[in-house]
Amino acid sequence: MKIQWSLILALFFALITAVFAVINVDPVQVNLLFGSVSLPLILLILGSTLLGGIIVGAFGIYRGYRLQREVKGLHAKLVHIQEATGYVFPEPEKPERGKKKKSAGNEAEAGAGAESAEEDSPIQP
């Protein structure tokens, strides 16, 4: 759900930026360190937005890479500790697929039915 909201906010921001850029089409002087350039303001706005998005995206990729390295390091430590101590994590209980859980009342009825079925059986061990 968080990704959907992020996408909606990004699209909303892109729409506002595009409308703002289209309204401002007059040429402006941009002073650089080595000279000046005359550009339409729409290109300056869209270029700045694109450059900002690239910087934020690069930072996000770097952060994900750093976190992935940390996870790998912690996993290696965990394996080392498990080998040194012999500890094994207990497996979580998984319910069987396709079978409904029996409630306490149903188990008593099922148990009573099984006992009466054993009594009625013609073959006795």
Write the layout of secondary structure elements.
Blueprint: H1 2-23, E1 27-31, E2 36-40, H2 41-85, H3 104-120
Antiparallel strand pairs: 1-2
Helix pairs in contact: 1-2
Strand order of the largest sheet: 1-2
Proportion of residues in extended strands: 5-15%
Outline: elongated
Query: What's the tally of helices?
Result: 3
- Poorly predicted runs are 114-118
- Biggest pleated sheet: 2 strands, antiparallel
How would you explain this protein's 3D organization?
This protein is mainly alpha-helical. It is built from three helices and two strands. It has helices at residues 2-23, 41-85, 104-120; strands spanning 27-31, 36-40. Strands 1-2 form a two-stranded antiparallel ribbon. A hairpin with a 4-residue loop joins strand 1 (27-31) and strand 2. Helix 1 (2-23) packs antiparallel against helix 2. The two termini are 60 Å apart.
Key terms:
LapA_dom, elongated, two-stranded antiparallel ribbon, 125 residues, 67% helix, membrane, single chain, mainly alpha
